[in-house]
């Protein structure tokens, strides 16, 4: 087994699916701030993500108009930036899910 | 909104924290103030929320652990700064922003290298305006069918009479630079639209 190859492959797969995972967490309509979102992803998926990579991704999703963000003041004086999904984001994640299921079926067939 | 720094009891933790903030500021200083504040405040909030979740224990160890998981600012902020800079540049039409954005995005593929070369041409036109004023006889557009074709400095090899633009040289360079500049910025916008 080539562990180095597998590790690289896993990190590529994670990188490629992170936007799909983020949009899926947000699709309920609840707003999350960055750290909260990371915890939610960890809780649901048990996937450890490189935390720093989340913020550039959120910026891209925002540029694509799939999510919006809003600063909310806190008692501590350190505001949180909350992200929530747009209707375009919801439609996009539905399409992504379709593709994901097809891909999953194909992979299951090929790995039999 | 301005950044409110996190307070630490442990001096070492405070030093580590301040050093991390300094590294973030250094990475984002090419962006406009609003974008700089946004990035700084968001990472600050990440650190703060993370610390709040684990209120007990050694501050230094907790902080080091958080910062390690977050990653080095020099690495995590590169794609973010490049994206934001490009967005700023295409919004403002400011040549300095566009040039900086292209430099940041050079690693993003061959298309940006093409843009970069186009941009160098643009600076070439502007340079020629200065050169024409400095050495009017030798700088110009020299053309003689199947013999001479020079846009720039003739280095004394050609007959100044072959210069075709004369007093129109400077206006022609200005128009070329402006036209090329508009084309580059519009192409950049087009590229961003296509990428989307």
Characterize the structure shown:
The complex is a heterodimer of chains A (112) and B (196). Chain A is α+β, with helices and mostly antiparallel strands and 112 residues long. Chain A has one domain: Winged helix-like DNA-binding domain superfamily/Winged helix DNA-binding domain (Arc Repressor Mutant, subunit A). Chain A is 63% helix and 12% strand. Chain A is built from four helices and three strands. Chain A has helices at 3-26, 34-45, 54-63, 87-111; strands at residues 32-33, 67-72, 80-85. Chain A has a three-stranded antiparallel β-sheet with strand order 1-3-2. Chain A is globular. Chain B has two domains: 1-83, no CATH class; 109-196. Helix content of chain B is 68%, strand content 6%. Chain B has seven helices and two strands. Chain B has helices at 11-28, 33-53, 59-70, 73-92, 95-105, 110-134, 169-195; strands at 139-144, 148-153. In chain B, strands 1-2 form a two-stranded antiparallel ribbon. In chain B, 27% of the residues are buried. The mean pLDDT of chain B is 86.
Short key terms for the protein model shown above:
heterodimer; A: 112 residues; alpha+beta; Arc Repressor Mutant, subunit A; three-stranded antiparallel β-sheet; 4 helices; 63% helix; 12% strand; globular; B: 196 residues; mainly alpha; 2 domains; 7 helices; 2 strands; elongated
